[in-house]
Automatic annotation (TrEMBL):
GO molecular function: DNA binding; DNA-binding transcription factor activity
Stated name of the protein: Transcriptional regulator
Keywords, ordered alphabetically: DNA-binding, Transcription, Transcription regulation
Listed InterPro entries: ArsR-like_HTH, CBASS_pafABC_assoc_protein, DeoR_HTH, HTH_11, Tscrpt_reg_HTH_DeoR_CS, WH-like_DNA-bd_sf, WH_DNA-bd_sf, WYL_dom
SUPFAM superfamilies listed in its UniProt record: Winged helix' DNA-binding domain
One Pfam family named in its UniProt record: WYL
Species whose genome carries this gene: Cellulomonas bogoriensis 69B4 = DSM 16987
Domain HTH deoR-type residue range list: 4-59
């Protein structure tokens, strides 16, 4: 690439796309010598970009946080919040409209804020819904961790007010039903999990990078929908399956993400619904060859028993029904 200006802009895009690069990687991507690369880095520094170099055989380059916003009179977190809003608006207003506004905003942002916006664009997946509640700093840091495949730690409070400490490998952020969810690999539990960003505290990026993991589904939104019982499904029950956890996961796939092994060697599978009927209908997914029982409120069990009798009568039976047994 002969044009120094175009080459410098491409170099800047690389530095903004990833946290750090080795000198050899940048030279190879730009098709220039190490000496030319150093001149291009100096050119960016003259333009006000704080590019630092680390020693080593190949050397390393990193774009540091720096600079303030131009005369928009916006605080840093306000600018990130606008970028988040534009990303979500792309669903309702159309991709071109939202992205056009986002590009105009990015042109006026300081480098470290552009990095946050870029991370949100690449690793935050909108799944519809209104009334998005988002902490800009938390979501931006999670998006950067997704981009860099960097493990994080945080405190978490579940819907039942149980506090735990989590150590995870972030994969994707999903906006769903007015909230941000982190889809990630839970290191301590060796399984995929989803966490609401508004229930997190003390987020810490560890600096430990790991290879990318493949999701068990094509769309991370499926994982959020399968486990989002605390916000969109106020009624809950637990199905006790007479098969090991591994078999339950094979049969139910992502919908068994919240399942756990029980002391009897079977599987406890939490289900949820907006109404008693919705919750009961979830049991229709259980294959007939898998024995199961149910722990639920009396009104749920009553509806399930009535449904069983109706199904038996409709099928011409009636003498015998196969419903849940009390564990």
């Amino acid at each position: 690439m002969a044009d120094p200006t175009a080459r410098a802009l491409r170099l800047l895009s690389f530095l903004q796309a990833h946290r750090s690069w080795s000198g050899r990687e940048l030279s190879d991507r730009l098709g220039v010598s190490a000496r030319t690369l150093r001149r291009d880095v100096d050119r960016l520094r003259e333009l006000g970009y704080d590019v630092t170099a680390s020693p080593g055989t190949d050397g390393g380059y990193r774009l540091q946080d720096g600079g303030r916003l131009p005369p928009l009179l916006l605080e840093d977190e306000e600018a990130v919040a606008i970028a988040v809003a534009l990303r979500v608006a792309a669903v309702a207003l159309g991709e071109q409209t939202a992205l056009s506004a986002l590009v105009k905003l990015e042109q006026m942002l300081a480098p470290h804020l552009r990095r946050r916006v870029s991370a949100l664009q690449e690793h935050a997946v909108p799944a519809g819904g209104r009334g998005l509640h988002v902490d800009a700093d938390t979501v931006a840091e999670l998006a950067l961790a997704c981009r860099d495949r960097e493990r994080v730690r945080f405190g978490y409070v579940s819907a039942l007010e149980v506090q735990t400490s989590r150590h995870v490998e972030p994969h994707t952020l999903v906006s769903f039903q007015g909230r941000w969810y982190l889809v990630c690999w839970d290191v301590d539990r060796a399984d995929w999990r989803t966490f609401r960003a508004d229930r997190m505290s003390g987020l810490l990026r560890t600096g430990v990078r790991v290879p990318a993991r493949d999701l068990p589904v094509a769309d991370p939104t499926e994982m959020v929908m399968a486990t989002d019982t605390d916000s969109s499904h106020p009624l809950e029950a637990v199905v006790h399956l007479g098969v090991p956890l591994a078999e339950a996961r094979r049969v139910f796939g992502v919908w068994a993400t919240g399942a756990s092994a029980n002391a009897e060697g079977g599987t406890d599978w939490p289900i949820g619904g907006s109404t008693v009927a919705d919750l009961v209908y979830a049991t229709a997914w259980i294959p007939p060859e898998i024995p199961w029982s149910l722990t639920a409120a009396p009104e749920v069990r009553e509806v399930l028993a009535v449904l069983g009798h109706r199904l038996a009568a409709a099928s011409g039976g009636g003498a015998e029904t196969h419903g849940p047994t009390q564990p």
